[in-house]
From TrEMBL:
UniProt-listed Pfam families: CDC50 (PF03381)
Spans through the membrane: 118-140
Protein name: ALA-interacting subunit 3
Compartments in which it is found: Membrane
Basic and acidic residues: bias regions: 210-224
């Protein structure tokens, strides 16, 4: 029988398991491992080693205190072998999740210490960068001239204000002349927009009532499944373009004069080029669209493809001709109202 010898071969700190690991050899060639939790004090090492030596010397391997003796050559107690002297307990399935440095938030990370000096220096650096940007943006915004003039209430006769829908759908002349005062110099180009208040165009039913495939391809003109309720005519023919968005095309008309001279309004390039090239086909033409006299929207020229009808693509138009505006210069804006916003309608002049 080989002589029993005892010595400690190695020890180290295992950061992942959180144990002090000591590997030793006892009882000849049979190895054993002593695990001591990190909560144990250094003074407990000699006591635990002595405790294991006494257990091995008596020929019994057992758990004692916070130390654990494991024999790599001895069958596990959960295996329930026939040569085991002691009764084995049934192995319990642990619900503890598998260890991972990611789930345990032990990945390497930068954790700066937020000292007052470090925080103050960071705020000063950010302010030095963004204060000049804010000053430049503020000065640039002050030079922008924007004039908003509401006309929907004044352009309806007093006797018809209780029945605005009936007045707009009637055949009466709806031309309305308004005088707009320009408070300061406006350089070219001057953009003309219309502004609608209380017009909820972000409603889900309104936003979904369109068909992009129909707008791009002439072979998909019958794709009107998502355009309800403005999808087909009473005869069953498809409406191109279909849907509530196209049906509510803004159809008020504007004209601007100064010193009895009409200023030209250019409606070209008022929409994104990417929208004209990708979303609207150059060989798709309006069909069965409304005639513009009904409430809700205007008419489209059936001989012009949708990619060139920029009033449909974007509801705004810009003036790119004429002279610069002058300070306190009065301009006359004439409008013909056909659209009922059930809110307020305004004309907006802006210089960018």
């Amino acid at each position: 029988m080989a002589e029993s010898r005892w010595w400690v071969s190695t020890w180290r700190w295992n950061e992942g398991l959180g144990w002090w690991l000591l590997a030793a050899v006892g009882l000849g060639p049979e190895p054993w491992v002593l695990l001591i939790p990190r909560s144990a004090t250094p003074f407990a090492f000699p006591l635990e080693i002595l405790r294991v030596l006494v257990v091995l010397g008596s020929g019994r391997a057992r758990r004692k205190g916070c130390g654990q003796v494991m024999n790599s050559n001895t069958p596990s107690s959960s295996a329930g072998g026939a040569g085991s002297a002691e009764p084995t307990a049934p192995r319990r399935n642990s619900k503890r999740p598998k260890y991972s440095r990611f789930t345990q938030q032990e990945l390497p990370a930068c954790k700066p210490i937020l000292t007052p000096k470090w925080v103050i220096s960071t705020f000063l650096l950010v302010s030095v960068v963004f204060i000049p940007i804010g000053v430049v943006s503020l000065l640039a915004s002050r030079d922008v001239v924007e004039i908003v003039h509401r006309y929907d209430a004044e352009c309806i006769p007093v006797g018809s204000r209780n029945n605005r829908v009936g007045f707009i759908q009637s055949s009466r002349d709806k031309t309305c002349n308004r005088t707009i005062t320009v408070p300061k110099h406006m350089g070219q180009p001057i953009y003309v927009y219309y502004q609608l208040d209380n017009f909820y165009q972000n409603h889900r039913r309104y936003v979904r009532s369109r068909n992009d495939q129909q707008l791009r391809s002439p072979g998909s003109e019958r794709e009107t499944s998502s355009c309800s309720p403005e999808d087909t005519t009473p005869d069953g023919n498809p409406i191109v373009p279909c849907g509530l968005i196209a049906w509510s095309l803004f159809n008020d008309t504007y004209g601007i004069t100064r010193n009895n001279q009409e200023l030209a309004i250019n409606k070209r390039d008022i929409s994104w080029k990417s929208d004209r090239d990708r979303k609207f086909g150059d060989n798709v033409f309006p069909r069965n669209f409304q005639n513009g006299t009904l409430i809700g929207g205007g008419s489209l020229n059936a001989s012009i493809p949708l990619s060139q009808q920029e009033d449909l693509i974007r509801g705004g138009f810009g003036r790119r001709g004429g002279r610069d505006g002058e300070r306190s210069r009065r301009q006359k804006a004439s409008s013909e109202q056909h659209f009922v916003p059930f809110g307020s309608a305004s004309v907006l002049l802006a210089e960018f």
